[in-house]
Design goal:
Layout lengths: L9 H7 L41 E13 L4 E12 L5 E6 L2 E8 L7 E3 L8 E6 L8 E10 L6 E4 L11 E4 L20 E10 L3 E4 L2 E11 L2 E12 L6 E4 L2 E4 L4 E5 L1 H10 L3 H12 L7 E5 L8 E2 L4 E4 L12 H8 L7 E3 L5 H20 L1 H21 L22 H18 L1 H14 L3 E3 L1 H11 L4 H7 L1 H6 L15 H13 L14 H8 L15 H10 L8 H13 L6 H10 L3 H13 L1 H15 L5 H11 L3
Parallel strand pairs: 1-10, 16-17, 17-19, 20-21
Antiparallel strand pairs: 1-2, 2-7, 3-6, 4-7, 5-6, 8-9, 9-14, 10-13, 11-14, 12-13, 15-16, 18-19
Helix pairs in contact: 3-4, 3-5, 4-5, 5-6, 5-7, 6-7, 6-13, 7-8, 12-13, 13-15, 15-16, 15-17, 16-18, 17-18, 17-19
The structure holds ligand BES and zinc ion (ZN).
Length: 650
């Protein structure tokens, strides 16, 4: 049902949005055909408190970008032409913008349109209201916004050559999720509003733009002295947070006929070798939950300042180089971002309060891919690590924030980016799977992706779907406790934590070292996988008080030397070790900390370390201040935004 009505009645809205043609689902035997010209059934728009748009009145259906990347000025400038449909009689359309220089708004013929921007909110940015002649029934119009981004656009990071692997060319990349696309594209920036899009990107000829879309044509065209224009097209309607760009000295190597890796030339061999399992993962994912609907699946391995582990930009996952560990030990990140091609990119959280529908489903699906490719034991270890993290999160968050359906009123959607959406969300689906059986659960989930493809999903419509197609008896309803999982804090009583047999000896070794003060030489480190090592380093005494030590300086030194932690190259392990070191004010690890924090900007690593340093008062704060002054210029706005709140701006 339509929950939020504007000027028009629900009935008029459904009529105006037109009939719903049936989705065509390619069979399993036509794997690489992208689905184009996707039919749009009427969308139930729900109020998104993080967008100014009123799609129930007027909505953007297509975005056509024509932008020039100026690395000197650090701006993208040009035009966004927006196709708009609206309710009959509607005479304005509201867009989201933040920190943009708007030069003009015109109609398709170039005639100026009146527009105004609303009050500026630090999180939401501004509304951009464009006044247009009243829409006739069924009419579709084009408006053109000429604009430029600012050098400090929060979605964009402009890297100097020194911040890249090659050291010779600058680099630009974007990060749209959750509400940053409005800092580089003036459109309706809500995950509930899908738009097809295309782009013409002009960049210096020695750089190559890549986007989360199909590349059109084989090469670029000359666009002026030293400038080349490249074209892209995304025929599937996507929420704007999935529009993404990277521009740099990047090269490509195929993995199989539909997967491959983009990265700087000096990184290409290592990145390709690490990501070879990607091809099999796509095959496995399709066998589980239906055809991959996006044509190619490539991965762009970014410079180290990329603020996330990965970002599921359609057709082109963006990934941190910290997953290039040399032994394929961190490829579950690829399984995760790939899984988003269904959970997130096909079926999308309608608002950020429904974020668990993206991330919880994805963590569940990720684990199923890992199980299919690497076996049950590895999958259980990963689940177990997830449960460990979730327990810490449950202990640290206010209970209201441990519900799956979030209340983000007045808050940045970033605040919902916790293990609750990811791990409690996945635990919920694992619980349903355990109770109804894998076969029935898989059949439902595959159907859920098909029925809701290219559509926004709310928690309430998820409940409707699962109650219609899977949970049809009172007995099952009672067993599953779905409302408790979604609307109550904590873990419901039907939760059964994962048990990994492989972790039993790891836990014993951890107790022997950490609690019983045994020697590091007794830790069978070299025989362990990365997941076993992570488990070991995550060990904490059950009764650990805030700020208390659990290791002596001698133990820390023994651990550091015994496990060769100064030479460790796996970023997950370095991070886990540095957490221990900082919490014990272990001075000898400060050089390792300094290297780690100044050579990589992944927020998941950077923010907890600065937070721990800050908690260590007179010891940690001067170190934090010194290292942040050094590191901050290299970080993406997503990371500085979070760390500024802890350490302050240097
Ligand atoms: N979509 C997220 C990243 C994200 C979430 C960006 C919310 C901005 C706002 C991505 O799929 C993700 O979850 N990345 C994780 C890695 C994953 C393996 C858990 C990350 O970056 O750590
Ligand atoms: Zn994710």
């Amino acid at each position: 049902m339509i929950r939020q009505l504007g000027l028009v009645s629900a009935l008029a809205l459904v009529t105006a949005l037109g009939g719903c043609a049936a989705m065509t689902t390619p069979g399993a035997d036509m794997p690489v055909t992208p689905v184009t010209g996707t039919a749009t059934a009427p969308v139930d728009y729900v109020r998104d408190i993080h967008s100014h748009a009123r799609p129930e009145i007027a909505r953007v259906t297509h975005v056509s970008l024509d932008l020039t990347a100026d690395f000197e000025a650090q701006t993208l400038s040009g035009a966004a032409a927006l196709d708009v449909t609206a309710e009959p009689g509607a005479d304005q359309i509201i867009l989201d913008v933040r920190n943009l220089d708007i030069q003009s708004v015109t109609d398709a013929a170039g005639a100026p349109l009146r527009f105004e921007t609303g009050a500026s909110d630090p999180i939401l940015g501004q509304s951009l209201t464009v006044h247009v002649p009243a829409f006739a029934p069924g009419e579709r119009r084009r408006i053109v916004v000429r604009y430029a981004t600012r050098p400090d656009a929060a979605a964009l990071q402009w890297l100097t050559p020194a911040q890249t692997a090659g050291g010779e060319q600058p680099y630009l990349f974007s990060q749209g999720q959750a509400i940053l696309t409005r800092t580089w594209i003036p459109t309706q920036d809500s995950p509930g509003i899908r738009q097809t899009w295309d782009a013409r990107i002009v960049a210096p000829s020695d750089l190559k733009p890549v986007m989360s879309a199909e590349a059109v044509g084989d090469g670029g065209e000359l666009a002026g002295p030293g400038l080349t224009a490249w074209r892209f097209n995304e025929p599937n309607p996507v929420p704007p947070y999935l529009i993404a760009i990277g521009v740099g000295d990047v090269a490509f190597q195929a993995i199989d006929e539909r997967t491959g890796v983009w990265t700087e030339p000096s990184m290409l061999h290592a990145a390709h070798d690490e990501l070879v399992p990607t091809a099999e993962m796509v095959d496995v994912a399709e066998r589980l939950y239906g055809p991959y609907r996006w044509g190619r699946y490539d991965i762009l391995v970014l410079p180290p300042s990329f603020p996330f582990g990965g970002m599921e930009n359609p057709r082109l996952t963006f990934a941190t180089p910290t997953i290039i560990a040399g032994d394929r030990s961190l490829v579950s990140l690829v399984a995760h971002e790939l899984a988003h091609s269904w959970s997130g990119n096909l079926v999308t959280n309608a608002t950020w309060a429904d974020f668990w529908l993206n991330e919880g489903f994805t963590v569940y699906f990720e684990n199923r891919i890992m199980e299919a490719v690497y076996g049950r034991e590895r999958a259980l270890m990963l689940q177990s690590l997830g449960w460990g993290g979730l327990q810490d999160t449950l202990a640290s968050l206010p209970p209201a924030d441990t519900r799956l359906k979030l209340d983000l009123a007045g808050r940045d959607p970033d605040e919902g980016m916790t293990d609750i959406a990811y791990e409690k969300g996945a635990a919920f689906l694992t619980t349903i799977e355990r109770i109804v059986g894998r076969e029935r659960f898989d059949a439902w989930l595959k159907g859920y992706f098909e029925r809701n493809a290219f559509r926004p999903m709310t928690t309430e419509r998820f409940l409707e779907d699962i109650r219609t197609h899977l949970v049809t008896t009172k007995a099952l309803e009672d067993q599953l406790m779905m409302d408790a999982w979604i609307y109550q804090p904590g873990m419901p009583s039907n939760w059964r934590p994962p048990v990994s047999d492989a972790f039993v000896p790891v836990d014993a070794a951890a107790r022997a070292f950490f609690a019983d003060k045994g020697p590091a030489s007794a830790i069978p480190w070299s025989g362990w996988s990365t997941q076993e090592r992570q488990r070991f380093l995550a060990w904490r005494p059950a009764d650990l008080a805030d700020g208390a030590d659990w290791l002596t300086p001698a133990q820390l030194a023994d651990l550091e030397a015994g496990l060769k932690l100064r030479e460790e190259g796996n970023a997950e392990l370095v991070h886990a070790w540095l957490q221990i070191a900082v919490q014990h004010r272990y001075q000898p690890a400060v050089p390792t900390l300094e290297t780690f924090l100044t050579t990589m900007g992944r927020r998941k690593f950077v923010l907890p370390l600065f937070t721990s340093l800050w908690a260590e008062g007179d010891w940690g704060r001067p170190i934090a201040t010194r290292l942040y002054a050094q590191a901050r210029p290299g970080y993406h706005p997503v990371t500085t935004g979070s760390v500024d709140a802890v350490v302050g701006r240097p």
